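Backbone-to-sequence.
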């Protein structure tokens, strides 16, 4: 009997526990399912208003001379003098003496040529006298018939005159060679490279230096089709301008040196006649006049220096300037409706620059665009606007 009780007692206790648990579960409160409350995303906005916008076309190029020349020796001899400013980077004015070649041989040649001219003049005068005497003798004995050319020495007179003309030409050539021993600056400019120095023997054709004019510098700028649509380019036909000079676009050049940025003003002066087949871009030439005027606030431009350029383009009216951070993809923005809901909209872009896109529509004044990026947001979701101006209005389009 005791064995049976010891065996059944655990079973009874286990069964009672199960029954009590089932009763508790059946009589307990039923749990309800609830969706988690997700707060709406917060965004910063700008309020749109139409405005005028001056297109600034960005390009870049390398500074080059407007006029560049190679000085070449036209006479042979030893260089006996060089100017103090005859060095790479030296400035000179038009007519300045740059080099002097030993001219003693050329002075002797001029003296010899002048002596020959004097001899030929004397020979011509003697022949003229003989001819006049022969004419008088003929007229004294032959009153009716004209004298033959040989009688009045016409061939001899013409030969003497031709010899004099040749001697005079040799004298002018000798004087020209003497003049060429002095190498003068053809214009006001600067020396790009120096190739000879004092004591060096040069021959005809020796390169002396490379120089360029200092009155203006030029920059060759590439432009894309989109940029060209907003510019008035200088064009001409048969040396006559098609576009008036007053409509030529102004250009601002800038150079960064360390933490400083220096600027120069220029203008577009001409357009090249073909499009580059590799880049499919058209090159225009901009000119900087008087680039070496004395200014204490900026350095001098150098040939070969790389510069940034901003060209004044067309004036756009009633457009909207939108920061690039508000653009999704190529042209999509998030409009915030009056109910603070998000609406995707594709814009009609008319211009792009580094920081902004300019759109003509479809936008309305007073609409708000989200500046905060919501890459996976769907149309119609609620948002919360965070930024307010001091006067209580939402952010404005600057």
């Amino acid at each position: 009997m005791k064995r049976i009780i010891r065996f059944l007692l655990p079973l009874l206790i286990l069964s009672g526990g199960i029954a009590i648990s089932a009763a508790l579960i059946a009589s307990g409160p039923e749990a309800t399912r609830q969706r988690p409350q997700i707060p709406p995303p917060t965004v910063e906005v700008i309020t749109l208003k139409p405005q005028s916008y001056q297109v600034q076309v960005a390009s870049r190029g390398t500074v080059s001379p407007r006029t560049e020349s190679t000085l070449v020796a036209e006479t042979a001899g030893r260089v006996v003098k060089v100017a103090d400013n005859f060095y790479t980077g030296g400035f000179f004015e038009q007519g300045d003496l740059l080099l002097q070649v030993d001219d003693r041989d050329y002075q002797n040649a001029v003296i010899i040529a002048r002596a020959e001219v004097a001899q030929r003049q004397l020979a011509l005068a003697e022949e003229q006298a003989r001819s006049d005497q022969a004419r008088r003798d003929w007229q004294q004995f032959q009153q009716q018939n004209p004298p033959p050319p040989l009688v009045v020495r016409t061939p001899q007179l013409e030969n003497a005159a031709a010899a004099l003309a040749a001697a005079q030409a040799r004298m002018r050539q000798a004087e020209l060679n003497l003049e060429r021993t002095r190498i003068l600056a053809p214009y006001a400019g600067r020396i790009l490279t120096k190739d000879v120095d004092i004591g060096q023997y040069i021959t005809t054709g020796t390169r002396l230096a490379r120089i360029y004019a200092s009155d203006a510098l030029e920059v060759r700028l590439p432009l894309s089709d989109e940029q060209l649509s907003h510019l008035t380019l200088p064009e001409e036909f048969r040396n006559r301008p098609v576009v008036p000079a007053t409509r030529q676009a102004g250009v601002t050049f800038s150079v960064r040196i360390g933490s400083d940025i220096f600027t120069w003003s220029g203008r577009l002066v001409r357009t090249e006649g073909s499009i580059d087949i590799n880049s499919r871009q058209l090159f225009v030439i901009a000119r900087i006049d008087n680039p070496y005027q004395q200014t204490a606030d900026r350095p001098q431009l150098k040939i070969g220096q790389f510069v940034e350029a901003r060209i004044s383009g067309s004036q756009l009216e009633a457009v909207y300037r939108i920061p690039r951070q508000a653009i999704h993809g190529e042209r999509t923005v998030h409009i915030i409706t009056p109910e603070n809901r998000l609406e995707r909209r594709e814009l009609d872009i008319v211009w792009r620059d580094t920081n902004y896109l300019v759109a003509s529509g479809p936008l309305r004044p007073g609409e708000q665009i989200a500046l905060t990026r919501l890459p996976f947001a769907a149309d119609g979701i609620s948002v919360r606007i965070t930024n307010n101006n001091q006067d209580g209005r939402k952010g404005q389009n600057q």
